[in-house]
């Protein structure tokens, strides 16, 4: 896709990978619709970009995908790409894990991502073009103790991405996922010191490393669909 003047919707845009992706796609000439809960952060980010607007909201709100599509159409007249990025990571042992927090994670990482993808897939299919990037993880391809539900949520994203890619093949709509290894973001901010130690790595990636990967998927010519992109720190061995 030639990204100049095309329109991308980015969930989880208020920090980390979503924020870096907003800057990367802005630099590529895209117009952006941003979403997350933190209205102040979205406001500041949108004001620092060339053509960006935002809708603050809870990503698991079933009405949000439709509102984002309407915002893209009313502000920019079109929608071309969805970056399905919002996510959280709740971990813990069988004894200690907060089951309610786990279930809320599944609503955010899985249910909300599915709702978002279907609303945009329908629109893209009607118009015969578009691309959906889902944020998976290395945890979507590998398993780790104490991360059962997070790994499960990202394995679900992997399977969902591939099924949608197959269903939409030939429609002009592409689907792919990005699988980051450890990236230094706020994702780990509520973890205990012991939990942080489990994923400690000397030189994690920065959010911009993943943003470049997302741009790479979107920039492919229409005869190419990159379905998966694993991006890890060069020194990550597990
Ligand atoms: N960091 C890593 O090592 C890593 C590795 C592999 C995959 N990933 C994936 O990358 C994606 C982005 O994570 P990140 O590392 O950039 O983390 P982050 O800095 O914590 O960003 C998460 C984003 O999601 C939004 N969000 C969280 N809960 C939300 C909710 N209930 N409603 C609306 N928005 C919500 C947050 O915004 P608000 O708080 O403002 O709502 C924020 O913008 C996630 O899907 C994550 O699983 C990250």
What does this 3D model show about the protein?
With 238 residues, the chain is α/β, with parallel strands linked by helices. The protein has one domain (7-231): Rossmann fold, CATH 3.40.50.720. The chain has helices at residues 16-27, 39-48, 64-76, 99-127, 148-168, 193-198, 207-218, and strands at residues 7-11, 31-36, 52-56, 81-84, 130-135, 173-180, 228-231. Helix 4 (99-127) runs parallel beside helix 5. Bound molecules: NADP nicotinamide-adenine-dinucleotide phosphate (NAP).
Q: How would you concisely characterize the structure shown here?
A:
This protein is of the alpha/beta class. 43% of the residues lie in helices and 16% in strands.
User: Structural class, please?
Assistant: alpha/beta
> How does the overall form come out from the CA principal axes?
globular
CATH architecture: 3-Layer(aba) Sandwich
Radius of gyration over all CA atoms, rounded: 17 Å
Going by CATH, the homologous superfamily would be: NAD(P)-binding Rossmann-like Domain
CATH topology: the name is Rossmann fold
Biggest sheet character? 7 strands, parallel
Total strands? 7
Kindly report the average pLDDT value: 97
For the record, what CATH class applies? Answer: Alpha Beta
Bound molecules: NADP nicotinamide-adenine-dinucleotide phosphate
Count of alpha and pi helical runs: 7
List low-confidence stretches: none
Quickly count the domains.
1
Topology:
Elements lengths: L6 E5 L4 H12 L3 E6 L2 H10 L3 E5 L7 H13 L4 E4 L14 H29 L2 E6 L12 H21 L4 E8 L12 H6 L8 H12 L9 E4 L7
Parallel strand pairs: 1-2, 1-4, 2-3, 4-5, 5-6, 6-7
Helix pairs in contact: 1-7, 3-4, 4-5
Bound molecules: NADP nicotinamide-adenine-dinucleotide phosphate (NAP).
Family: Belongs to the short-chain dehydrogenases/reductases (SDR) family.
Keywords: Oxidoreductase
GO molecular function, one term: oxidoreductase activity, acting on the CH-OH group of donors, NAD or NADP as acceptor
């Amino acid at each position: 896709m030639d990204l100049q003047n095309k329109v991308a919707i980015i969930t989880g845009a208020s920090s980390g990978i979503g924020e870096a992706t907003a800057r990367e796609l802005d630099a590529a000439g895209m117009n952006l619709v941003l979403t997350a809960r933190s209205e102040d952060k979205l406001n500041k980010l949108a004001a620092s970009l060339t053509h960006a607007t935002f809708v603050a909201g809870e990503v698991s709100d079933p009405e949000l995908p439709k509102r984002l599509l309407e915002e893209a159409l009313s502000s920019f007249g079109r929608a071309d790409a969805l970056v399905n990025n919002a996510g959280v990571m709740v971990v813990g042992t069988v004894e200690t894990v907060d089951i309610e927090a786990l279930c809320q994670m599944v609503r955010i990482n899985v249910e909300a991502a599915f709702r978002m993808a279907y609303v945009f897939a329908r629109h893209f299919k009607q118009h015969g073009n578009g691309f959906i990037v889902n944020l998976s993880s290395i945890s979507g391809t590998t398993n780790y103790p104490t991360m059962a539900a997070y790994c499960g949520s990202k394995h679900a994203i992997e399977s969902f991405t591939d099924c949608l890619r197959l269903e939409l093949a030939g429609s002009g709509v592409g689907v792919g996922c990005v699988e980051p290894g450890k990236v230094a973001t706020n994702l780990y901010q509520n973890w205990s010191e012991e939990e942080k130690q489990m994923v400690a790595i000397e030189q994690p990636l920065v959010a911009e490393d993943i943003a470049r990967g997302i741009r790479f998927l979107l920039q492919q010519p229409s005869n190419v669909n990159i379905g998966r992109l694993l991006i890890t720190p060069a020194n990550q061995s597990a």
